[in-house]
Specification:
The chain is α/β, with parallel strands linked by helices. Helix content is about 30%, strand content about 20%. This is Acetyl esterase/lipase.
């Protein structure tokens, strides 16, 4: 009798919560792995934010949105990409970003290539540091824009839980900072973060999270590897081992500017490994900076790892049957309890024997959709010594 009561309680109270939480993306039948869509639809000149320009003027920001033509899926993952250009030049129709967005859309993703604020003055390390903060604010605004749309109008049919960010060179700096620069105290005081609008900026849609699901770093770096912390989102890094612009290991960057020490892809991998952040490093042996921008054959060396990195993060192989916890909590699959609303967990705690309660709490972490601890091809990428 007690068992039946527990079973009915679990079914009755948990079902509404399950209905309110959409299932993860369906990765069967080759979706998100094979180019199932021959045609791609592009919505150009989508305004996603209005921000303060370099001279204080209101500046609109635009993106181009890519989606598979004829797709009937109502919620699709999104990959946001930002172009290279040293925070001085470049546009959202950058040939590499355009190609990557098109290829992603053919797999079934949605993708967006964004513009961001360029130029800075004075032309020194303070100026470029502030430019990097402004550009990161713009990427965060784009994430919030799509999360707002996913919650309201849903004109882009994006699944707000699965928004990834990435970029090339300067765009990769932005993506890395969007994911891992999450404390105002980490920004050097001389950049005057408060005057810039804080970490999030003033791009609108306050209250919506700008935290991505994962990061794609193409030839970028971070000022501090320590910004990567346990519990942060997964990281894919692709970079030439002989990059003479952005160090592959730890080194100086700046060109004509006062040099700054940054942590390149090899250092970020070691840091990610040390703190348990799922990560993939794909070194481009003997290649320099952004080789895919000059030699199209390198694009496959970028796109294939992107494809293989993203798909395991879409929830494939996620929690087992909901009733597993109620029927046999000692042997239930991980994260099943995460699907139970809080009131059900409290009821189970009082009704189950003490040892069963302990098993439920210890075996079933309360995370909505756990990320895999180890990603395919995450290991085996050896690094040249520093």
């Amino acid at each position: 009798m007690r068992f039946l009561l527990l079973l009915f309680l679990t079914i009755g109270l948990a079902t509404p919560a399950l209905q309110a939480q959409p299932a993860p993306p369906d990765t069967t039948k080759g979706r998100y792995h094979r180019p199932l869509f021959a045609q791609v639809k592009v919505r150009r000149n989508v305004e996603f934010a209005q921000v303060s320009g370099l001279l204080g003027q209101t500046q609109p920001l635009y993106l181009d949105f890519y989606e598979p033509s004829g797709d009937t899926v109502r919620r699709r993952p999104l990959v946001l990409l930002a172009h290279e250009g040293a925070f001085v030049t470049g546009t959202r129709d950058d040939v590499v970003m355009t190609e990557l967005c098109t290829r992603l859309a053919r797999l079934g993703y949605t993708a967006a290539s964004i513009d961001y604020r360029l130029l800075f003055f004075p032309f020194d390390s303070v100026g470029i540091g502030r430019a990097a903060i402004r550009a990161t604010q713009d990427m965060r605004a784009a994430v919030r824009f799509f999360r707002h749309d996913a919650a309201k109008a849903r004109q882009f049919k994006v699944d707000g839980r699965y928004i990834f960010v990435g970029g090339s060179s300067a765009g990769a700096f932005m993506a890395l900072q969007t994911a891992y620069l999450d404390k105002a105290a980490e920004v050097p005081a001389y950049l005057n973060l408060a005057a810039l609008g804080g970490l999030e900026g003033s791009g609108g849609y306050a209250g919506y999270s700008s935290r991505p699901r994962g990061v794609i770093n193409l030839c970028g770096a971070l000022a501090q590897a320590g910004w990567l912390q346990a519990g942060d989102v997964p990281l894919l890094s692709i970079q030439g081992t002989r990059d003479g612009i952005v160090p592959y290991n730890r080194g100086l960057i700046g060109g004509p500017l006062p040099a700054q020490v940054v942590a390149g892809s090899a250092v970020l991998r070691r840091r990610a490994q040390a703190v348990g952040v799922p990560n993939v490093l794909r070194p481009l042996r003997g290649a320099g900076h952004v080789p895919y921008s000059f030699e199209p054959t390198y694009l496959d060396s970028v796109f294939v790892p992107m494809r293989d990195f993203l798909r395991p993060l879409l929830g494939a192989g996620a929690p087992g049957p909901l009733l597993a916890a109620a029927l046999n909590p000692r042997r239930a699959g991980v994260a099943t309890a995460a699907l139970l609303p809080r009131r059900v967990q409290l009821a189970l705690s009082t009704m189950l024997a003490e040892d069963t309660k302990t098993a439920l709490e210890n075996r079933l972490p309360r995370t909505e959709q756990p990320l895999p601890a180890v990603l395919p091809a995450a290991t085996g990428a050896t690094e040249p010594p520093e």
